[in-house]
Design goal:
This protein is α/β, with parallel strands linked by helices and about 325 residues long. It has 13 helices and nine strands. It has two domains: about 210 residues, Alpha-Beta Complex (Spore Coat Polysaccharide Biosynthesis Protein SpsA, Chain A), CATH 3.90.550.10; about 90 residues, no CATH class. Helices cover about 50% and strands about 15% of the residues. Strands 1, 2, 3, 4, 5, 6, 7, 8 and 9 form a nine-stranded mixed β-sheet that branches.
Length: about 325
């Protein structure tokens, strides 16, 4: 960033507010709020039914707190919307809002860098940066998250939970979709791009995330949530010009459903085609590993999980379909 431009953005910090959402984040929330102290005056923390001292912690730190109504199902989308509305009720002149998940620490330079970018790019509604995993080497599941965060920079289709947004753009599309239990950020970005706005990811460091995934079961649940998100996105926008999540959902059904059915059918017939079907998965792992980095052993591990994740993702897709057929609302899929 140009030094003069970055310094000039300091005077605009009073037009920036922050919304933090969380549930039972403990010391992760402490780190998150510590990273924001003294940078922006208006910070709202929205708590989704924590049973620890998260609300007391935020209040002790001088942060405005909001406790979600326990009678209505929790979603991150609903928490962000309520935090955003509360922020505007504190100061109607807020022009920019930084959303942060409570398990993330904001890098010291990020707020100025992001604000500077939005100020100088009037066609950009959302800007995000590099989200890194705090302890990528602690478990393979944390490492998988770190690889997942490493997306392309420039104009992109979607952001994640941590992002800075232009208030008037967010208001124009009526914010997040409250009822989505997963995939709410990409869905919001579909509507923003449909309204003519751009979404950018910068190369600047943005946040440190603490996935705290130590067990295969946690990774499995998180992958189920991912499949559910793709199904919901496809249902809402997959059969429009946007084709949102249509390709991802098709891949999930192919690798998680169609091919296994072929294998099971072949096993009944004791056909040699069964071995070939199993080989398709090995070839897919090989293809992905070679595409990522053929000389890096981590690429092979990543490719392996990229292939087997289609099974829990299919579970997520089925859960979404069942909830639609029954007309019921799915409860939040949590992995920690």
């Amino acid at each position: 960033m140009d030094e003069n431009r970055s310094l000039n953005s300091n005077k605009y910090l009073e037009s920036l507010g922050i919304v933090v959402i969380g549930r039972n984040e403990g010391e992760r929330l402490q780190r998150c709020l510590d990273s924001l102290q003294g940078k922006v005056e208006k910070i709202v923390y929205v708590d989704s039914g924590s049973t620890d001292d998260s609300l007391l912690l935020a209040k002790r730190m001088g942060v405005t707190t909001v406790a979600l109504d326990l009678s209505i199902p929790f979603t991150a989308a609903r928490a962000r919307n309520i935090g955003f509305k509360h922020l505007l009720s504190l100061d109607a002149n807020i022009q920019y809002v930084q959303f942060v998940d409570g398990d993330c620490e904001v890098i010291a330079t990020w707020l100025n860098n992001a604000l500077d970018f939005l100020i100088h790019h009037s066609d950009c509604a959302v800007v995000c940066g590099r989200r890194r995993e705090r302890f990528p080497q602690k478990t393979i599941y944390n490492q998988l998250c770190d690889w997942e965060w490493d997306g392309p920079t420039g104009i992109v289709k979607a952001c994640g939970g941590d992002a800075m947004m232009r208030v008037d753009a967010l208001l124009a599309v009526t914010g997040y979709r409250d009822g989505l239990i997963a995939g709410e950020e990409p869905e919001l970005c579909v509507r923003l791009r449909g309204a003519g706005w751009q979404i950018w990811r910068l190369s600047e460091e943005m946040t440190l995330h603490d996935a705290a995934m130590f067990k295969f079961s946690q990774w499995w649940k998180r992958s189920i949530r991912g499949g559910y998100a793709f199904a919901a996105g496809c249902y809402l926008h997959g059969f429009t010009q946007e084709r949102h999540s249509l390709l991802e959902s098709s891949r999930i059904w192919l690798w998680g459903g169609v091919i296994p059915i072929v294998i099971l059918s072949g096993s009944v017939l004791v056909s040699p085609w069964v071995l070939l079907a199993f080989g398709v998965y090995l070839l897919q792992i090989l293809r992905l590993a070679l595409r990522f980095s053929p000389t890096n052993s981590d690429a092979w591990l990543y490719a392996f999980f990229m292939v087997i994740c289609k099974f829990p993702e299919l579970v997520g897709q089925v859960k979404f379909i069942i909830s639609q057929l029954k007309g019921t609302k799915e409860i939040l899929i949590e992995y920690k």
